[in-house]
Sequence to fold (264 residues):
Amino acid sequence: MASLIHPTAIVAAGAKIADDVSIGPYSIIGEHVSIGHGSVVGPHCVIDGHTSIGANNTFYRFCSIGGMPQDKKYNGEPTKLEIGDGNTVREYVTINTGTAQDVGITRLGDDNWIMAYVHIAHDCQIGSHTVIANSVQLAGHIHIGDWAILGGLTAVHQFVRIGAHAMIGGTSAVRQDIPPYLIGAGDPFRPVGINSEGLSRRGYTPEAVAALKEAYKLLYRRNLKVEEACEQIRALQQDRPAEHDALQVMIDFLAASTRGIARS
Fold:
């Protein structure tokens, strides 16, 4: 292990570092950090806090990972950051630990692509296979589902939830929940349809995409209240049983929304 750690790096005695982890010049690893096999930490990175990192992650230069939350209520509680496997984290990314006011853990799943200057604040829950482009700013307590894509310079309000497979265009301002499968952009965010191309690439059948397009119309084109749209989507499930599960993802998301959904 020693041969993979640059002599100018500082690794605290309590840190748990797998034997094949590479740590670049001038990086600092805190005493409560664990890093799994095959991971690479570039030069000038700081990884501290109660931070657990899985296997095969890559952190480019000047990342700040596991720093204390930017929350005035934080009082030094030993909150955590958990990062899964296979993530790429580019230059100047900041990811903070959680707070006692939430579950106390910020989470990043597997195989995410986090581009330069992204900020992921305290208590965010990021799924897997997401793409978060340059300079996206995520406030606290945000939940993002698997396969979501956020365009560069997008800002997301605290407590917002973004559903799986959603695609948000660059420079958007997101203040309310974005249901799964949607595509859109703007300030405020405006949905324009279903992310049909992304769904097709991920193996969704033409029939499933068509059912989701019909659900979108019920939610956004029929002047229905959200509860009424959900009832119509449940009826659609009965008509198209093969697409039941895909439609259920949207129903469950709408039922759990507390901020209301973006409908501009």
About this structure: The CA atoms of residues 237 and 262 lie 23 Å apart. The longest helix spans residues 206-220.
